[in-house]
């Protein structure tokens, strides 16, 4: 069954127009950029209008109280938010679930103390015993945000240098840069869609995306350009099979991580990478591969 | 199977892996039965000083096994010779019954430091608010002093143990494992206001006026309808009033002294003149000839002495307040709480003393030492040299932390098992499962082993890094597998060696990119994600240099 699916996939991929495949990736890239731009102008959840990305506590600043919700207790997030508003405290409240626990996350500005949050919760009938409290000063968060952007740019440049040094050729270099940039932009756009905040953790995920993304690109470029055996499309497809194996295994490992862990930081890393791997498949085999095939066959 | 293992044993790469694994396991499980207690600190004057090192384990004393700090406490006041078996050697220690001076921790089975986000506790990041124009050396000195002052507060207030760390000259980080946020808040918010007073009891003997002298000048307190007045000021308990001494015996004019009314009875008042506060304590000597403990030959008591440098104003107030009052006592207060009372040497009465010696006696040397360091801390813990702004606070409930460790282990094991199953499904070769498992687990063990050797704390980001490293390891195993399998049958032109070499070209390129990206990450967010970066880098390096070559070799043999 599997072999048959792969066979038909290969047939379709061989027959498909390279320009068409490339256009698909380009359209996705443009749509994502457009969405990011459109999204920037809007206020959305905790993201203010004028900001490009939804940012988590570490990059935005504020206070956050996280507590387990006792079993059997029903919590109406909207009502709770209203109760905080009545007390003059602006909050964003979220309920998150994992197989082992239900969590309540209350986020406020930095001028609200943890005791005030606990008091309002208690008044609303939510008794919290054990909790985690985080406080990040907005000025510090601003510094983190600046560093994060710089780091992403630096990592990108280093990646470019490595790739250029390894292939010493302009077209593969451009193709890989195209694929990696596309991964980044589409992932950032999808993070806005799924409301995954940029945080130091999800940011670490984004940096790893560069690594994973280059993985598949390098497999492709090496197979297609450094081999002489078989036709270009055979070589491309063999690289694709390898890459598919990589994607599927990594995806499943990340899915296990996402489901099993209760740590928000790990979930953020996992979800960023899951999205990225899915996108990477398109960027590599529709984008990068089309450029490389066109160039080798020309 | 046996032949395969035998032929693998001829490979030097396999031996490197075996050695790396053995070293890692040894580093991680150097104490498999968690015996003994780990010495975290040896106090000054401890009989163990110079005998054992911090980090050593005490396993038994006089053949009695020591398995917990409580076991060690049994020997706290032991007098005589002790045969102490440590993790290093057998040492003989002479104890004088005044305490062992050891601070110990329970030994752990796994030699790994777990981060605060996994075991619970509080972490605070403070940003010092420096004045403009300080250079880096000056900032550094101020930060060092600030940390010393904070440590002193810990001692004085008897707070739980915390770790202080400077991050460049930009931040101070305080980490307190297993400690609630209130303790850290107390540490930062209690400024520790020190004050010293010399009280005077003024009796009226049923008169309406009573006199007292300050630096030779006479002042008067009057009584009207049962109330006492200094000039026009009504004296009330715990209220202060200012006294100006026009001419003093030391030649200073118009000296202002703050008095506080302590006690009012029908026929007397006790007023206390403030001689010093935190501002007046310029330096507290801590060592050498200026701070020590001696034993009196006759009484056998232990006496501590230490010198303090006082501001001129403070020294002058001392002279004026003690002049003509040989029985003066100095009362020390910390945050309005009485700390102790000190007598004054006869020879110093009425003198301007800039460097008084503070002395006291105790029954044992240990007690004398303790009292000395307590007093030193009190005198020293004025305001912090630099104002600190709290910029980040994380306080993690120990239970949530525990849950995270558990769920991370489940996630890690689950991921490896699922991935192995999928690889089997893709390649349909059961021979491949063992190498995949060996490679993945080896990498985890080596990452943890290296973390243990370099004393790297495993926190949540570090766990994410381990998972990322294993993820990319699996990717590379697939690259190696497919390169090996792909041209295996019909293309004899390429030797297996060459094919694997080509696979490693891909692996190295990808590894180089990942290492670059992670190095960058190490510098972001004052190193908050450094754990992620470090474990990923260790994992990728271990993978590229040690485990993945072996994976390639095993594939060569089994496929």
Quick synopsis:
The complex is a heterodimer of chains A (298) and B (559). Helix content of chain A is 69%, strand content 9%. With 298 residues, chain A is of the alpha+beta class.
Poorly predicted runs of chain B: none
Percent in helix of chain B:
40-55%
CATH topology term of the largest domain in chain B: Multidrug efflux transporter AcrB transmembrane fold
Largest interface: A-B, 66 and 72 residues
Structural class of chain B: alpha+beta
Largest sheet of chain A: 4 strands, antiparallel
Strand arrangement in the largest pleated sheet of chain A: 2-3-1-4
Radius of gyration computed on alpha carbons of chain A: 23 Å
Q: Judging by the overall fold, what is the CATH architecture of the largest domain in chain B?
A: Up-down Bundle
Number of strands of chain A: 4
Helix content of chain A: 55-70%
User: What percent strand of chain A?
Assistant: 5-15%
Rg estimate of chain B, integer Å: 34 Å
Name the CATH class of the largest domain in chain A. Answer: Mainly Alpha
Distance between termini of chain A? 35 Å
List the helices and strands and how they pair.
The complex is a heterodimer of chains A (298) and B (559).
Chain A: H1 2-15, H2 18-40, H3 57-60, E1 62-68, H4 77-86, E2 92-97, E3 102-108, H5 114-123, E4 131-136, H6 138-167, H7 170-193, H8 200-226, H9 232-260, H10 264-297
Antiparallel strand pairs in A: 1-3, 1-4, 2-3
Helix pairs in contact in A: 1-9, 2-7, 2-10, 6-7, 6-8, 7-8, 7-10, 8-9, 8-10, 9-10
Chain B: H1 2-8, H2 12-28, E1 37-42, E2 57-61, E3 64-65, H3 69-73, E4 79-86, E5 90-96, E6 102-106, H4 116-119, E7 121-129, H5 136-157, E8 163-167, E9 171-177, H6 181-189, E10 194-203, E11 209-214, E12 217-224, E13 227-230, E14 233-234, E15 240-247, E16 253-264, E17 268-277, E18 281-284, E19 291-295, E20 302-310, H7 312-322, E21 329-334, E22 337-343, E23 357-362, H8 365-380, E24 387-396, H9 398-427, H10 433-453, H11 460-486, H12 496-521, H13 530-558
Helix pairs in contact in B: 2-10, 2-13, 5-8, 9-10, 9-11, 10-11, 10-13, 11-12, 11-13, 12-13
